[in-house]
Amino acid sequence: MKKTMLVWSLVLLAIPVLAPAKDFPLEFKTLNAEEAMAFPGGSGLYGTLQLDKPGAITKAPPAISKHPLYGQMSVSTNRLWFRIDESKGDGKGYDRLIVDLNQNGDLTDDPVAARVEQPRQTSAADRTEIALFGPIPVPEGKMIGTWRPIYFAQMYLYTPPADAVANRNTSYLGQLRFKAGWYLETTVDLDGVTQKVGIVDGNCNFRLGDFNQPTTYQNGTETNWYFQGGDYFLVGNDGSGKFENSIGSSVSAPFGPVLYLGAKPYQAVLAADDKSLALEPWAGPLAELALQPHGEQVNGLQVAWEAAPGEWQLLQPGVENGKAKVPSGNYRLYTCTLKVKNAAGETLILSGYKRTPKDTTMARADAATPFKCGAPLEVKVTSARDNRNSGSTASESGSFLDWVFGGNAGAEPVLQQFIQASVLGAGGETYSSFFLKGDKGNLRQPPKPAFAINTADGKQVASGNMEFG
User: Looking at the domain assignment, is residue 27 inside a domain?
Assistant: First the structure.
């Protein structure tokens, strides 16, 4: 929280004295279990299920099940321990959840959440047990004024514990997901436009006002990063009065000092008591990102902004005619969504991401700064040997055909390698989500990409289709 406050202070010091902002009162809204799990604004907390009780749980009510499930849900800014039990006896179904909401290691002073009654759910694997729990109210000490936030959890149990014990394979049984069942909402009227705006506890730490923080990790020799652990704004742009994501369009944006309504940036300040949201046009220096080479195809964008030296924040600027207005400073591409019509009149929607913290672009005030992303797209094809074959590459042994095909001379060839294709954008982003939207709004995936392997003289020796993802 100290880093967040530091960034706020530096940002606000850089902004000229402004006229009083317009305050919009916030209302407390609740969701049911199904709504909460599908609600936009962060993925919540995740924890893996295990049979061993973690040492951090120092006290708990007697368990009824022979195989109670335990775990820890966490992100960088929050950690919650839990236990799931079977109140009707061993093997009768998990129907009781206790989450250490006050984070003291004692599960006896936390509420017991019951299983939500709903039609039986199964995944593609019929043995998977899926259960919803809640509502789970926070303790009095974590209330927001007179409001008592509630949360819900969803369990995915992939392996029955009795089977896992019998097979001595208890490394991964399933997972528990924890999400907010509440949010704050207001109706704003600015520049002649009226729309719904909300704020949701995306990291489930029982408070609002957290930025998404960058986390770095090593992927082989390459440094990668991602943003997590923060809250989210919600902006209803379709006039429906609801907050619902759709393919290629998101109503949620990372919480921070900048909120976009359409393509216009506003300075946003959440009141200390969470009772109101103050908004006014961003009065600091503004730069313009000119998205290239085909900015007209860009439908959505997320960028990392260096708000203070070494302090990166995630922004989701509105895009209009291939351009985005942003506070001046250093920027890196994070995600990009494209929409383009194909020859059949369908809309092709592609979503890409960039996880390498490099290629910084300086955007200066009152100037158009070229910012690469999107088309033209490059398809990069690579191949790798099956793990059973030592992971060697084509160049290490014989010709390409010897490497791709195995078996004795005269025998039917067997494909031993994996052929992979990456779709890369102009900014170095990787596209991994592809959908076609028909004129009636129906969504489907494009036809599977086909490949063929030819010899130097043009003779085809193999062909096939690739799966998306």
Answer: no
